[in-house]
Write a structure and sequence with these properties.
58% helix; mainly alpha; single chain
Length: 175
Amino acid sequence: MSDVEAKLLILQTFILSHFNYCSLVWHFCSREDLRKIEKIQKRALRYVYNDFTSSYSELRCKANKPLLYTQRIKQILIQVYQSTNKISPKYLHDMFKVKTVNHNLRNACLLNQPKFNTVKYGKQTLKYEGPKLWNMLDNNIKEAQSANIFENLIKQWPGISCNCSVCSVCILNNM
């Protein structure tokens, strides 16, 4: 095992495992906290590769690691799949409602996005964010025949792509 491989193993075991544990619970923290979390991964990757000049995206590319934010989005989508297919805990089965329409649409697997009164207790919740992300997914991923197939497709999914420089994904990508 090379020095870089050993450092990557330590990174995965001792640092990233903490960020991936129960990530759905703390995914909706402030933008500043999200930036701090990504900064820890950035610093760890700099240490692993002894590279203090490359950008964060270049470091993640070297390590084949997505944004931690993207990993949490994938976890949300896995939870939505499990809930809509009734393979999650029973109390989550009714969290997401399938959108009913009177005519045929190309995208038939849409979920209702609930209305919210406040950002903190409405928009920044799994109940709101889950359907929003689910409705952005391609149908071939949503219609996976099993949870294992869905998880494999989600692992290959590149995540949300945007170039607006305002949303969380763009801000975290350009750190």
